[in-house]
Design goal:
mainly alpha, 69 residues
């Protein structure tokens, strides 16, 4: 081998947008949007989809936490 660790080789294979940092930020933003949708008093349609949005953000965060740095 060329002296690289497995993590160093994996880091080169992943596109920059699919790394853990940006994707965790996106998942956190989706969770925050779902929270705001749930606790707003204006539109019933936003409230209707708030749980699905929260769930999608949570599942995304769990999956993304396994991505390489």
């Amino acid at each position: 081998m060329s002296g690289q660790t497995q993590e160093t080789r994996d880091k080169g294979r992943w596109p920059a947008l699919l790394r853990r940092g940006p994707m965790e930020n996106l998942a956190t933003a989706i969770i925050a949007i779902g929270f705001l949708m749930m606790f707003q008093p204006f539109a019933l349609s936003l409230y209707t989809y708030s749980f699905v949005t929260l769930l999608a953000g949570t599942v995304m965060f769990i999956v993304v936490s396994k991505f390489p740095e």
